[in-house]
TrEMBL record:
Organism lineage: Bacteria, Bacillati, Bacillota, Bacilli, Bacillales
Keyword Oxidoreductase: yes
Domain D-isomer specific 2-hydroxyacid dehydrogenase NAD-binding: 110-288
Native source species: Neobacillus cucumis
Record's protein name: D-glycerate dehydrogenase
Matching SUPFAM superfamilies: Formate/glycerate dehydrogenase catalytic domain-like, NAD(P)-binding Rossmann-fold domains
Domain of life the protein comes from: Bacteria
Domain D-isomer specific 2-hydroxyacid dehydrogenase catalytic residue range list: 5-320
Keywords, in A-Z order: Oxidoreductase
Cell membrane found in the keyword field: no
GO molecular function: glyoxylate reductase (NADPH) activity; hydroxypyruvate reductase [NAD(P)H] activity; NAD binding
Gene Ontology CC terms, in alphabetical order: cytosol
Family: Belongs to the D-isomer specific 2-hydroxyacid dehydrogenase family.
Amino acid sequence: MKPYVYVTRKLPDALVKPLREKYTVNMWKHDDIPVPKDVLMEEAAKADALFTVLADSIDDSVLTAGKNLKVVANLAVGFNNIDLKTANEKGIAICNTPDVLTDTTADLTFGLLMAAARRMVEAAEFVKEGKWQSWSPFLLAGHDIHHKTLGIVGMGRIGETVAKRATGFDMNILYYNRTRKPEAEKQLGVHYTSFDELVEKSDFIVCLTPLTPETENMFTREVFQKMKPSAIFINAARGAVVDEQALQEALEAGEIAGAGLDVFQREPIAADHPLLKLPNVVALPHIGSSSTETRTSMVNLCVENIISVLEGKEPKTLVNKDWRPLINK
């Protein structure tokens, strides 16, 4: 019997063709509706491999149901949606898609910064709604980006690439990270600071840190109150690193000037969420890596990882480095 692969989102047939040529493949019929938990459990119980997305909760119950499950290929850099401890115990390889999305996510992050700073979305809607009746000197005046101070929280691959973009704007670049990056300091001219110093000195604060127990709710009301009143906060990491109510209150109180958000605590965010009512918030639907080229590369990497594990080889981008396949699987 051929190995069974379940894909939790509808993908173009051409991209899953390499899997269909080797295995029995079943795919959820929607690309924008999450697979229900009961369906996921039923499929996991039959699957040798799961092709998942970040919105899927691959918890202990799913992994335990997967008696034959050998690999979970997650279409994301992050993997906080997967129970790694159980995966290790069950001998299940967990894979992600790093590197291939670095430049694309950095582009979006810097674009979000520019949109929030120059009030681009607000201005576009102003024109479309027929409000532009005349020109005036300070009509929708935003904030300059060039020669300002950028603070990057989380100096991984994407953080370094955002810093590279910022050098073209002659920005003074600060960063905070769990470990210093001497090579980045040398090549990009970035400066390591404490978190508090970065928050206090930066004109733009860009959050790119992974979600961990230490970073959850990292940005509190107290943190926002330390920022400049002219500061703009950008989050392209994970929604849970920010206390959203605190951010809302800081924006309403004028403690910071604006925010650009690609991620939220609950996704998709409700249309009546208070943050979406604020004109100085640019909100995007978690599209950091969403270019046709990059999403295709991410899918291809997931497919490659699944094939590797099912053929008894180590996958290209293994998350749980201590993974060892169980003999009885």
